[in-house]
Design goal:
- This protein has eight helices and 15 strands.
- By secondary structure, it is α/β, with parallel strands linked by helices.
Amino acid sequence: MLENINMIECGMTNCYVIRGSKGDVLVDTGREEYRDHIETWLLNYNITLIILTHGHAECVQNAAYFSKLYNAPIMISPYDMSIARNNGARPYYITNPLGLLMKRHLEMNAHIRMNRFEPAIFAEEGMDLNPYGINGVIMNLEGHTKGSIGIFCKSSVGYDLYAGDAIVNTPLPMFPPTCESPAKAKEAMERIITISPDRILCGHGDPIICGHKPYKLFIDRF
């Protein structure tokens, strides 16, 4: 069930590559300190599109660099452009003990230097990705941030959801530790459960295999 997952581990954060028929899609771009690591990893791919699941630094800090390097357009929700330019632009709520542990890190993020970029494509709910060579659609996962999105696509094992931070797996599947809107984050979680993907590719933590016991326990708790 872990076959054909192209995951780039960048500390506590993951970026992904989705193989496409017209080139490959980079999902999130990591922090600046991981740029060389990611670039080396991407030597095996032909990046033709960059999709950002939300506007936090760990997703967008290298977006401008990789967009220029690969001449690849950037896709992001218009609702996250303000935090893509200033991570402290909007308030958030801490939802669980992990969020409390991350509080100092999050406060530092509010002042982190962001590298400006101009998106070529604004992501919308239900947007068809077939024109970009991916058999999938954009999914609205608002909650962690107002503009959080996922990529729901066909894979070799069924259906994958690249979920950003709408669900994390650290070390077990759980609700995002911080949310701009906990109510919307709950709705996003309910959407994920309803579409029932075979795998969830998280921005933080290992991929979630949805038939496995930890995920079933999470569903029961949720």
